Amino acid sequence: MDLGIAGKWALVCGASRGLGFGCAAALVQEGVNVLVVARRPDVLAEAAKELRELAQDYRGTTPQVLALAADVTSEYGRQQVFAQHDSFDILVTNAGGPPVGDFRDWDRDMWMQAVDANMLTPIALIRATIDGMAERGFGRIINITSSAVKAPIDILGLSNGARSGLTGFVAGVARNPELASRNVTLNNLLPGKFDTDRLANTLAGMASKSGNSEDDVRAAQQAVIPAQRFGSPAEFGAVCAFLCSQQAGYLTGQNILLDGGAYPGTF
């Protein structure tokens, strides 16, 4: 299927590895020009190199890959982004989750950091891009949130709260007729357990705490997923690319759960 987005410009945040990189890779393979942003210059440079190699394989006009090491949670970081490229047809917001723990231990500063990174920053990026999308008659905004938005986890209270706030905001904006009628859609992707560095670090911590081997912990975690495995960044990226496609213009305001069937509910 031709997704019809070759030549568009995408801003992909947190794109140096993991799910953000998976989304950027999928878009590049569809001929989309990308600006990838992450904080660590060394890791980002390697990711950009891989993306440029993928770009060479595209059968049409080779898409551009720009890379910027910046902190988009800051106003200065966002200014750097739009100095690199001033308008985008596709926005993929993505930020690492805040610390786990007991809500009794979280002070106001920790809550504000979580809200800033996982709610206010995506909103700021949406605000900066969405009107231009509407004027051009095409826009796709994808927010990478978490399966915990749908099935909250007690130790992830900071994430539960901040990401749920973003989810509520997006639900309202996505249904604005001035945007939806101009082919601008907003959707959220809710990942379950994906085979990323973040998950590997989590499993290592669980193994250290329990005294079990990492292989045993990994196997036990996979066993409770109906698919009996973790997801891959590539398949996550493929879903993101479809949501960005011309064909997805009637899909907006939705929370797409990718978890291998782990969520037990009907809705």
TrEMBL record:
InterPro entries: NAD(P)-bd_dom_sf (IPR036291), SDR (IPR050259), SDR_fam (IPR002347)
Gene3D superfamilies: NAD(P)-binding Rossmann-like Domain (3.40.50.720)
Signal peptide range: none
Family: Belongs to the short-chain dehydrogenases/reductases (SDR) family.
PANTHER family: 3-OXOACYL-(ACYL-CARRIER-PROTEIN) REDUCTASE, NADPH-DEPENDENT REDUCTASE BACG
Name by which UniProt lists this protein: 3-oxoacyl-[acyl-carrier protein] reductase
Organism field: Brachymonas denitrificans DSM 15123
